[in-house]
Specification:
Organism (chain B): Erythranthe guttata (Yellow monkey flower)
Shape of chain B: elongated
Pfam families (chain B): F-box
InterPro entries (chain B): F-box-like_dom_sf (IPR036047), F-box_dom (IPR001810)
Radius of gyration of chain A: 20 Å
Protein name (chain B): F-box domain-containing protein
Largest sheet of chain B: 8 strands, parallel
Number of strands of chain A: 3
GO cellular component, one term (chain A): cytoplasm
Largest sheet of chain A: 3 strands, mixed
CATH architecture of one domain in chain A: 2-Layer Sandwich
Number of helices of chain B: 6
Number of strands of chain B: 8
Oligomer: heterodimer
């Protein structure tokens, strides 16, 4: 762990496409995965993160730095997270949720998951398919049968042309 | 565009975690690979304003039980106007023991009983108190009645939230003194309480 005084310790993280990033240990240990490595004394050299690409890692590090600069104020942290995620597309969000899971960062994991979930709130099946790019491989009969089975969930949702 | 549906199931479950049951069940119609994902998520949330049919809650819980699935969190909001008092007791009497079977082992339970005519629905404490593995109990918009329960069994409770709850002083005192692990107590708009005695080691967040 970092010494109580003196210069802050910096860690070097390596993405799976061999990009190197420097990040303050105090911010990086938001990741339980990284924190465990630091505590086990395995964080001396370069820390390879085999499941995260450079673009995603850069974004995660921006988040780590941003959120760790905010004092213990849950509302401010929440508004930072909302702002941080506001301009991310679904592809980026999918990368982020995988990275957050791998790095064991529950606050980021929950924020991204909730953001993705929001898309499905009270929305029709057709809407969600289009948003997420899901290909419908049901035959019309199969789809009708699934909907019939849970009829109560298809009442009163926001519909559009192809419900 | 197609990255979200390719995510592993445990991550999809985490995403579905944030939705009410109605939205989650609807994902079964998205495509064949989504057909059954909703069925195994480790939380159930029946706490929105949807009028859930008795059969839906019942069958869903029974499904978790039959498949021996783990259920961490259960949120339920029911309108006492839809049930008679005795019906409500018998439903909770059936569901709560299911929740706390060793396979399901619900740790967090949120229950609200809404009632018409602004009279709070009565939660029969002896029924709720059968939920032994609970770590968090959150009751809102309900009354805990007037009978002091003889036994208070769930010893693992850490967090108790009472919001807009009518509770007799004696019942509250008995509950508080029965839980050795209780660390957080949230009280908001509770009627019937005159004093709250603070003991050391208990962190309390009191909201009025």
């Amino acid at each position: 762990m970092a010494a109580e005084t003196g210069t802050p310790t910096t860690l070097t993280l390596k993405s799976n496409d061999d990009e190197l990033f420097s990040v303050a240990e105090s911010a990086a240990i938001l990741s339980v995965t990284i924190r465990n490595m630091v505590e086990d004394g395995c964080a001396g050299g370069v820390i390879p993160l085999d499941n995260v690409d450079g673009k995603t890692l850069a974004s995660v590090i921006t988040y780590m730095n941003g959120i760790s600069a905010i004092p213990a104020d849950e509302e401010k942290k929440k508004s930072y997270r909302d702002k941080f995620l506001s301009d991310k597309d679904f592809e980026t969000l999918a990368d982020m949720v995988l990275a957050a899971n791998y790095l064991n960062m529950s606050c980021l994991m929950d924020a991204v998951s909730a953001k993705i979930a929001q898309v499905m709130e009270k929305k029709s099946v057709g809407w969600v398919r289009r948003k997420f790019g899901i290909e419908n491989d049901y035959t019309p009969e199969e789809e009708a049968a699934v909907k019939e089975e849970h009829k109560w969930t298809f009442e009163g949702v926001e519909t559009d042309d192809d419900n | 565009m197609d990255r979200i549906p390719e995510l592993p199931e445990d991550i999809l479950h985490r995403i579905l975690y944030f939705l009410f049951q109605e939205d989650v069940v609807r994902t079964s119609a998205l495509s064949k690979s989504w057909r059954y994902i909703w069925r195994t998520r480790p939380n159930l949330d029946f706490s929105d304003n949807t009028k859930y049919y008795k059969g839906v809650v019942n069958n869903t819980l029974q499904g978790y039980c039959d498949l021996r699935l783990c259920l961490d969190e259960f949120r339920l909001r029911i309108s006492s106007g839809d049930y008679s008092d005795s019906e409500l007791v018998s439903l909770l009497d059936k569901w709560i023991p299911l929740l706390t079977t060793s396979t399901m082992g619900v740790k967090e339970f949120q229950l609200s009983i809404l009632s018409k005519n602004s009279v709070r629905g009565i939660v029969h404490l002896p029924v709720v108190l059968k939920a032994e593995p609970l770590k968090l109990l959150w009751l809102y918009d309900c009354s805990l009645g007037q009978n002091i329960p003889e036994n208070i069994p769930f010893v693992r409770l850490q967090v108790l939230r009472l919001q807009s709850v009518s509770i007799e002083q004696e019942i509250f005192d008995k509950i508080i003194s029965s839980y050795p692990l209780l660390t957080d107590v949230w009280l908001q708009k509770c009627e019937g309480l005159k004093t709250v005695i603070l003991k050391k080691k208990l962190h309390r967040y009191l909201k009025h």
